[in-house]
Amino acid sequence: MNALVVGASGHLGGEVARLASAAGTSTTGSGGWSRLDITDRRAVLDLFASVRPQYVINTAYRASSWTICADGAANVALAAVAVGARLVHVSSDAVHGGRPTPYLDDDAPTPVYPYGAAKAAAETAVAAIDPAAVLVRTSLIIGDERSAQVRLALDLTTGRKQGALFTDEVRCPIDATDLAAAIVELASSDYAGLINVAGPEVLTRAELGRLIAVRHGLDPATVPTCTIAESGMGPRPADIRLDSTRAVGLLETRIRGAAEALSVA
Ligand SMILES: NC(=O)c1ccc[n+]([C@@H]2O[C@H](COP(=O)([O-])OP(=O)(O)OC[C@H]3O[C@@H](n4cnc5c(N)ncnc54)[C@H](OP(=O)(O)O)[C@@H]3O)[C@@H](O)[C@H]2O)c1
């Protein structure tokens, strides 16, 4: 088997590549082993034609770039279809606008900010180009210091960065290794369409930050916190809980809660 991991120099992509290789899959990573700009459609088609992967996992993104998130995802889907590869596309809970009740797998996107809109556009493009693709909606990705969420909490707590973690922004954080294992499992299944894969524990960003502080030997009381309104930021989806019941029933991978994954349970 031959897998191509798009975004393998990143946190999640690196974990997917590591697990796929450990499972005996021959793995090519883009961004790391083989530089690729997914906004360059010709380059994507050429790389896929030369690697001829059976599986493609697309973890590549940049939150500030519509072109990378949306157009890039479409280019990857076109290239995967062109070589007959099975595609797992990684999406985000940011496609949702926020509400107190959990979101189910097939709930339509209701984005409220540009990143969420770009990820929603990517989902629509990928599903139209490749109806057999898996679209994994996930939440805050935690783990070691490769995690942007972990680095943010540590930088704010130690004063390397100014700002605060929200006490009223709710998510379902997931460990990168658990998510990568679920993605590898989904790649070898025949599942098609949207699926939520997020952690079982519902936490505010502030609560998550305190867990991260404890994990790193810092005083959790020193984690700076505020509300979204106090931060003065524009509209953000406050409460997004992903219901991952379908994934739990389908997958052998056990998804740990944030406290257990950070070993502070
Ligand atoms: N991080 C989270 O908390 C979170 C939450 C929900 C969903 N997600 C989703 O999870 C996925 C992975 O997130 P992550 O935290 O692992 O991201 P990450 O560590 O920032 O990695 C992103 C990867 O995308 C690559 N990339 C960026 N622009 C590219 C381009 N034009 N062409 C090719 N590759 C490009 C980067 O390569 P270079 O570094 O070489 O530029 C890097 O390998 C994304 O789809 C994201 O939307 C993340």
Question: Would you mind describing this structure in some detail?
Answer:
The structure is a single chain. The chain is α/β, with parallel strands linked by helices and 265 residues long. The protein has a single domain, classed as NAD(P)-binding Rossmann-like Domain (Rossmann fold), CATH 3.40.50. It is built from ten helices and twelve strands. A six-stranded parallel β-sheet has the order 2-1-3-4-5-10, sandwiched between helices. Strands 6-9 form a two-stranded parallel ribbon. A two-stranded parallel ribbon has the order 7-12. The N and C termini lie far apart (38 Å). The mean pLDDT is 96.
Summarize the entry for a quick read.
It is an enzyme of class 1 (oxidoreductase). The chain has 265 residues and is of the alpha/beta class. It is built from 10 helices and 12 strands.
Question: What's the topology here?
Answer:
Layout (H helix, E strand, L loop, with lengths): L1 E5 L4 H12 L3 E5 L10 H11 L3 E4 L7 H17 L3 E7 L21 H16 L4 E5 L2 E2 L5 H10 L7 E2 L3 E2 L2 E2 H12 L5 E4 L6 E2 H11 L9 E2 L1 H4 L13 H6 L7 H4 L4
Parallel strand pairs: 1-2, 1-3, 3-4, 4-5, 5-10, 6-9, 7-12
Antiparallel strand pairs: 8-11
Helix pairs in contact: 1-6, 2-3, 3-4, 5-7
The structure holds NADP nicotinamide-adenine-dinucleotide phosphate.
NADP nicotinamide-adenine-dinucleotide phosphate binds next to helix 1, helix 3, strand 4 and helix 5.
